[in-house]
Structures are given as structure tokens and as C-alpha cells.
Design a protein that fits this description.
Elements lengths: L9 E7 L14 E2 L2 E2 H11 L5 E5 L3 H6 L7 E4 L7 H10 L7 E6 L7 H12 L5 E6 L2 E9 L3 H6 L5 H8 L4 E6 L10 H8 L6
Parallel strand pairs: 1-4, 1-6, 4-5, 7-9
Antiparallel strand pairs: 2-3, 6-8, 7-8
């Protein structure tokens, strides 16, 4: 595993391996405001100065990677992507360089997540006292979430789906919560979700 030289950065882990079965085509290659969903997610992570940005790929990996040409990121391949998101999450966390102080996990199909949101997660963690910084949308807990490096071993020890939620439940008493507008939770899973997103401009 590589190490970071000189400074303890917060890494970004972008989960972009799924098969988009409910969409009927690869949703990460759909364009909103002239930009694919996956490219937008990676650019948001870069604009938030996450380092490195790790993109976990699986379904149609070559096409998805081609949509990211010109951006600075590292590819993590998940050959078992069809088995669910938890495998991609474990792989992403396992490849965060030694020396990183934390990692933010975000999904490539949430176009309303912004670099400003990620920077707030980083700032709250830097204040100390929280090993987790969790996003809350009304009553819903969802990505992006920041995990302190001390929690990384937990991802390997938890089995089955929902390992990210499992880590949050395990360390609930060590978590800080940041509330975002409920509309920022919107993701793109089905054609009607994409239609709704096209009618609601996303922040640049």
C-alpha cells in the first residue's frame, strides 16, 4: 500500500462500480448540464482538495474511466461489483494510502453533493472529538461520510452488505452530524430520477 509523503491528507473514495440495473443503462454516463454523473462526482472530490481521489470501478469500467480523462484520480477495480456496494467500499478503504488521516466516501450518483459539503466534513473532523462525520438529510443518514483512519480496520472485519452503516452504528457515540437540505439527498437510480434531476439544476 502506498504512503503519503509529508502531510496527512483526507482521501476521497468515489463508488462508481454498480451495474445501474434499475436505470436500464449505465447511469454514471448520463449527462446533467453537459457533464456525466461520474465526472461531476470526481471533480467535486478534487475541488474539495481530497487527496488522493480513488474511484472504484466495475461495470463497464473502461467506459466509465474514459469519461474521467484529464482528471487526477486513481482507479480501483472491483471484479466482484455485482455482489453489492459493500465490496467496493471495502476495496476503496483498503487502498487509502497509509498516512491519510481520514477518508470521505461518496457516491457517483448523487449530483447535489458539492465540494463545499465535503470541505465542511473535513473541517468538522479537523476540530477533533469525532471519529466519524456523518451527513444527515432530515431523518435520513446517507453519504457522503468521513471515516477517521482509526476506523479503517472495521471495514475489513464487517461482512455482508451495509458495512458502511455497520461502522457508523458501531461508533455512533463518536460521530458528529452535519445536516443538509433534504433535496441534496436525491440520487439517480431510475429513469424518473434522472428526469427530475434534469428539471432541477445542480450547483456548479
Amino acid at each position: 500500500m502506498p504512503t503519503l509523503d509529508g502531510k496527512r491528507q483526507v482521501a476521497g473514495v468515489v463508488l462508481a462500480a454498480g451495474s445501474s440495473s434499475r436505470m436500464g443503462r449505465n447511469k454514471l454516463l448520463l449527462e446533467l448540464q453537459g457533464e456525466t454523473l461520474v465526472r461531476r462526482a470526481v471533480k467535486v472530490a478534487l475541488e474539495a482538495e481530497l487527496e488522493p481521489v480513488l474511484v472504484v470501478l466495475g461495470h463497464e469500467a473502461e467506459r466509465v474511466e474514459a469519461a474521467l480523462v484529464g482528471l487526477s484520480f486513481e482507479t480501483i477495480m472491483n471484479p466482484g461489483y455485482a455482489q453489492g456496494m459493500s465490496g467496493s467500499l471495502r476495496l476503496g478503504i483498503a487502498n487509502v494510502p497509509q498516512g491519510a488521516r481520514a477518508a470521505i466516501v461518496l457516491l457517483a450518483d448523487m449530483p447535489h453533493v458539492t465540494a463545499a459539503m465535503l470541505r465542511q466534513l473535513v473541517a468538522r473532523h479537523a476540530q477533533g472529538g469525532a471519529s466519524l462525520v456523518v451527513s444527515q438529510y432530515g431523518e435520513v443518514i446517507a453519504p457522503p461520510a468521513l471515516y477517521d483512519a482509526s476506523l479503517f480496520p472495521d471495514f475489513a472485519s464487517l461482512v455482508g452488505d451495509g458495512c458502511g452503516r455497520g461502522v457508523i452504528r458501531k461508533h455512533w457515540d463518536r460521530a458528529a452530524f452535519i445536516c443538509w437540505p433534504e433535496q441534496a439527498l436525491a440520487d439517480i437510480d431510475r429513469p424518473q430520477d434522472f428526469d427530475a434531476a434534469r428539471s432541477q439544476p445542480v450547483e456548479g
